[in-house]
Specification:
The chain is an alpha/beta fold. It has a single domain, classed as Metal-dependent hydrolases (TIM Barrel, Alpha-Beta Barrel), CATH 3.20.20. The chain has eight helices and ten strands. The strands form two sheets. Strands 3, 5, 6, 7, 8, 9 and 10 form a seven-stranded mixed beta sheet that branches. A three-stranded parallel beta sheet has the order 1-2-4, sandwiched between helices. The radius of gyration is 17 Å and the shape is globular. It binds fe (ii) ion. The site of fe (ii) ion has 5 residues, from loops.
């Protein structure tokens, strides 16, 4: 029996980034997630390492506090919803130090020594710089998941580079918005091909609000169920996220 769907990339925690504005909105977003079949959420507020350690410490404390508040509320309404705190790390020279200090959060850690982290870059980053950043993470003992991999210019249809990253242990996450009707539809075919060809390990909502970037897992899953192989979907929807969440 499946434990419900997973959403391991979203901005649902209140008041800590450009996502949910307050606790009320966060609870509405969680409700939308619940209705779309999600039962496991890793919250991933943006973590942008600033120059001052003090500022980072404050940001980290605010996130922990917001997480505890949401957890308490959620237990009253949806006691079967499992919640964890992670981060979407914007890569910079300082980010490893933030991870090592525990101010920035990993997504999970398993007994094979994998410490999963979710990371993003400027979308116009050069592939050489992305690879350098990835190897810095890896040499420090972290296993990167690249957030919304479909957005990077340097990876677009660059299958050799994607292969190389994958072989080094990188995981790729894609946003569900690619599979909805509307502005992102021109990208649909490319994204679907990435999934069909086994490039994508995870799909997530990257929820920011209730309208334009909303919890839309159900819609994406309905589309992908019609268009892809069940075995691939089983991995993307359950096995891979569970290996991270339950680690
Ligand atoms: Fe995000």
């Amino acid at each position: 029996m499946e434990k419900g769907l997973y959403d391991i990339h979203n901005h649902i925690l209140p008041g800590v980034d450009d996502g949910s504005e307050d606790l009320k909105m966060s609870m509405e977003l969680i409700d939308m997630e619940y209705k779309s079949g999600v039962r496991n959420i890793i919250f991933t507020p943006h973590y942008i390492a600033r120059s001052m350690v003090e500022k980072c410490r404050k940001m980290s404390d605010d996130m922990e506090e917001a997480f505890e508040k949401v957890k308490r509320e959620c237990e009253k309404i949806h006691p079967d919803m499992r919640l964890k705190l992670g981060n979407e790390l914007f890569y910079s020279d300082r980010i490893i130090e933030e991870l090592n200090s525990g101010r920035a959060h990993i997504m999970g850690k398993n007994d094979k020594g994998n410490r999963y982290i979710l990371t993003e870059f400027n979308t116009d980053i050069r592939h050489q710089d992305m690879k350098k950043a990835i190897s810095r993470y890896q040499m420090s003992g972290y296993r990167p998941i690249i957030a919304h991999v479909e957005r990077y210019d340097c990876l677009y249809k660059e299958y050799d580079i994607m292969d190389e990253l994958k072989e080094s242990g990188v995981m790729f996450q894609m946003n569900t918005e690619n599979f909805l009707e509307g502005i992102f539809s021109s990208n649909k075919k490319y994204c679907l091909n990435l999934i069909r060809n086994g490039y994508i390990e995870l799909i997530s909502t990257d929820t920011h609000n209730k309208t334009t970037r909303r919890p839309d897992m159900e819609e994406a899953v309905a589309y992908l169920s019609k268009k892809t192989d069940g075995k691939i979907l089983q991995k993307i929807l359950y096995e891979n996220p569970s290996a991270i969440f339950d680690s």
